[in-house]
Design brief:
6 strands
Length: 98
């Protein structure tokens, strides 16, 4: 698997922006490929952003549905996201890619 294809996009919400700012270690949230593992995400952060990941947690999100009067329509598909904690003193700028 190509290291550039593992990280799909960063997830920017109110919760993730608070996680990035607070604490002495920065935690970033990214959407990843469905076949990616923790080792793949660590290697991708090191290769693409030149940042050493200390800890990686992976979460599979579930489908969310929207109910209407006659049928159920799919609102959001399943995704896989990773919470990546970097070593002290390191940060990632998602606009800068190696």
């Amino acid at each position: 698997m190509n290291l550039y294809n593992i990280i799909v996009k960063p997830i920017v919400t109110e919760k993730t922006s608070v996680m990035e700012v607070t604490g002495d270690k920065k935690t970033y949230t990214v959407q990843i490929s469905p076949r990616a593992t923790k080792v793949d995400v660590k290697n991708a952060f090191k290769f693409v952003y030149w940042a050493d990941a200390e800890k990686v947690r992976i979460v599979n999100t579930r489908e969310k549905f929207k109910f209407t009067r006659k049928w159920v329509s799919l609102r959001k598909r399943t995704t896989k996201k990773a919470y990546v904690t970097l070593k002290e003193g390191q940060s990632v700028d998602f606009l800068q890619i190696k």
